[in-house]
Amino acid sequence: MFEGWIVLCSVRQRMGSLQLMEKETVTDKGTVMEKEILKVRETVMEAFPAFSKKLDTLDQLLERNKLFAEGTLLDAKMAAVESGVEARKALEEGQWPVAVVVCCSDSRVPPEVIFQVGLGKLFVVRTAGNRADADAILGSVQYAVCHLKTPLVMVLGHSSCGAMKAAIGAAKGEFPEEGALKRYLESAAPLAKSVVERSGEDVSALVRENISNVVGGLRADPSMADKARVVGCVYDLKTGLVEVTDAVAKRGHES
Known about the structure:
Elements: H1 3-24, H2 32-47, H3 57-70, H4 76-83, H5 85-90, E1 99-104, H6 111-114, E2 122-127, H7 135-146, E3 152-158, H8 162-171, H9 179-199, H10 203-219, E4 229-235, E5 242-244, H11 247-254
Parallel strand pairs: 1-2, 1-3, 3-4
Antiparallel strand pairs: 4-5
Function: Reversible hydration of carbon dioxide.
Family: Belongs to the beta-class carbonic anhydrase family.
EC number: 4.2.1.1
């Protein structure tokens, strides 16, 4: 399915033959061997950044997540291709992530694991509650989109989010003593209060409303206009599946 994998497997074989050549030949700069190594390196760098140019990036991430949820994990050989020595070498001079993932800091939701991707694939920005209202966070997303030319931004929330539970508490006037955490929840309280007034203390409703709110803010950012597709998704801790929640993104995904 992912044509880049096939290219990289052949590259690994060529790398092995080059190592044998190096043992037998003493060369100067600019020799045939060094030119061949450069050619192989360029092939790796071209193949590694994207799964397949012919397939939608979101579709491929969701497909890998589906396999993860089913318990079908990438085998050792494939993992070596995506995160092994050649992958690290290919990324020494730069990165070409296929997606930005703005997600919660919750230790149960590591994007690289639930999407089964290796080094250099995801530009991950993690905060409690996957919020994107601080300059450091928004600036990170802008950097990936505007400078790394990353074409997809995924805002990923998850079920049973502790940050959203705390935000509901804040909406009722319940705040912790810690200064930074208190300020964080004070800023989250207005959205939580509006959801509570409509849906009661429904954490899942707030999770989705929060995702929609962040997606809307990113889409409205003029610096990223028409440069990246912004989608909203939610991860289910029980099933392991990622679902597209944003209506616009879902229509595009299903078309």
